[in-house]
Design goal:
The chain has helices at 14-27, 77-80, 101-104, 117-124, 131-142, 147-159, 164-180; strands spanning 2-9, 31-37, 46-54, 69-72, 92-96, 112-115. The chain is α/β, with parallel strands linked by helices and 183 residues long.
C-alpha cells in the first residue's frame, strides 16, 4: 500500500487534492481512500489530509504515520508543524516552492522535489489554486496515477461545483505541471 500525507492550510485544497489522487487511482483500477484530519480549524489553519492507494481492498482506516509521499502545499509549515514526522529514508517529498530544496527543507536528505505550483496556478488559472497543479506534479513524480485519470478526476470532482471554464483552467494547470516537472 502506498501512503500519502498532504500538509497545507485550510482553503488551499488539501482535502480536494487527497480526493483527486484517490479518484485518479480508482480510475486506474486501484483501490483507494482519501480522508482529512482537522477539527474546528478555519481558513489558514494547518490541515492534514491522507490518501492510500493499493492493489487490493484497504481495510486500514487510520491516519498515516509513516508516509511514502509527503506533499506540502505551504512551505512555511515546515518550520511550524511537524510535517516530517514519521518520514522514512525513502519517503519522497513534494513542496510547493520555486526555491531549491536545500533552501526549503534542508534537514531531509532523501528525495525532495520543489514544484512551483503557485507560479503555475497564477499563470494558468489566474488565482492561487494550487491543488490541481500539484496533482499533475504528483502524477509525474510518483507514476502512481495516469495523467488521463487525473484529468478525469478533476472533471468529476470540480465539474459539479464550478463552471466549465474553471474546470478547463484547472485541467490546463494539471497538464502544465505534469509537463514541466523533471524527474
Amino acid at each position: 500500500m502506498t501512503q500519502i500525507r498532504i500538509h497545507g492550510r485550510g482553503g488551499q485544497g488539501n482535502v480536494t487534492l487527497a480526493e483527486l489522487i484517490a479518484m485518479a487511482s480508482f480510475y486506474d483500477g486501484k483501490f483507494s481512500q482519501a480522508f482529512p484530519s482537522f477539527g474546528v480549524e478555519r481558513q489558514g489553519a494547518p490541515v492534514v489530509a491522507f490518501t492510500k492507494i493499493a492493489d487490493s481492498f484497504i481495510r486500514d482506516r487510520q491516519q498515516i504515520y509513516t508516509p511514502d509521499y509527503i506533499i506540502i502545499l505551504d512551505p512555511s509549515l515546515i518550520k511550524t508543524v511537524p510535517v516530517l514526522e514519521g518520514v522514512k529514508k525513502n519517503t519522497i517529498i513534494l513542496i510547493n516552492s520555486n526555491k531549491l530544496h536545500k533552501q526549503v527543507c534542508p534537514v531531509y536528505t532523501g528525495k525532495v522535489y520543489c514544484v512551483p505550483v503557485f507560479d503555475i496556478a497564477m499563470k494558468v488559472i489566474g488565482k492561487p489554486i494550487i491543488n490541481t497543479a500539484m496533482l499533475g506534479a504528483f502524477a509525474k513524480i510518483s507514476g502512481l496515477i495516469s495523467l488521463d485519470s487525473a484529468r478525469k478526476s478533476i472533471e468529476e470532482n470540480l465539474g459539479e461545483k464550478y463552471a466549465k471554464e474553471v474546470v478547463e483552467k484547472n485541467i490546463q494547470a494539471l497538464k502544465v505541471a505534469f509537463k514541466e516537472i523533471k524527474k
